[in-house]
Amino acid sequence: MDFVLSGAAACGACLFTNPLEVVKTRMQLQGELKSRGSYQVYYRNVFHAFYTIGKVDGLAGLQKGLAPGLVYQFFMNGIRLGSYAVIESSGYIHTNGRVNAAKTTLAGAVAGVVGAVVGSPVYLVKTHMQSQSTSSIAVGHQHKHKGMILALSAIYKQHGILGLWRGSSAAVPRVSVGSAAQLSTFSSSKELVIDLQVFPKDSWLVALCAGMISSVVVVMAMTPFDVVSTRLYNQPVDHLGQGQLYKGFADCFSKTLRKEGLMGLYKGLGASYFRLGPHTILSLFFWDELRKVYQQCR
């Protein structure tokens, strides 16, 4: 039940934040491997990108990749948060009744690795579909998928089972770092808010406040890995399934840093917060509240 509740919480958050995921993906691919000033800027900031996509691709364009996004959230976060809930309920993350920072970080990272590996094929398709756009505002490689199932089938037929896990070398560090930062700060922040007696111990505001604190840490820690992950997943591949722009995580990281500077790794930071921030807050809030309801109904 921990896994089901965790997946349901993440899907609930995804319904609200998927348009921001589309915006974030486009901004991270804009000007790929090009120095500032040498490419056309279609998306000036989060709000301009939101407006541009809605105007050119229509409102449906802002929900591109929703189906694979929901599937990804259910399985990846279901496994990630579910695993963490099991570890937490076993008492592992506590030492002498208090949250242990090192243990929560380790537990969050391990849970993130498992979730990232399982969800990688659907994340691949989600990235492809969210980057697809009308040619006048297109950024990154355009894969031209017609739907999630057709995309998974086409990738499998062309590149085999390993082709479905292309880009997972970036997904593992991305999710493990993000998960470690998110869950360790969430657990510690909840304990801090309770200790300060800002809100009643069982109030839904405790989880909401802790989620808000966690969201800032997650975005700062995760964005460089998120940029690399998006680019690795979306890059074109040859007939053997090998990437034509990057050889792997380290190559993408170094090329982006060399060509675009440090800010290239933080490209779309505003979009990342507007997406990861609310998603972190909502998913952790839904997760915490659903677990409370389940415990009361048992």
TrEMBL record:
Key words of the record: Membrane, Mitochondrion, Mitochondrion inner membrane, Repeat, Transmembrane, Transmembrane helix, Transport
Localization annotation: Mitochondrion inner membrane
Membrane topology: Multi-pass membrane protein
A Pfam short name: Mito_carr
GO CC term, one of those recorded: mitochondrial inner membrane
TM regions (residue ranges): 204-225
Keyword S-adenosyl-L-methionine: no
Solcar repeats: 1-90, 99-192, 202-293
Family membership: Belongs to the mitochondrial carrier (TC 2.A.29) family.
PANTHER family documented for this protein: RE38146P, SOLUTE CARRIER FAMILY 25 MEMBER 35
Protein name per its UniProtKB record: Solute carrier family 25 member 35
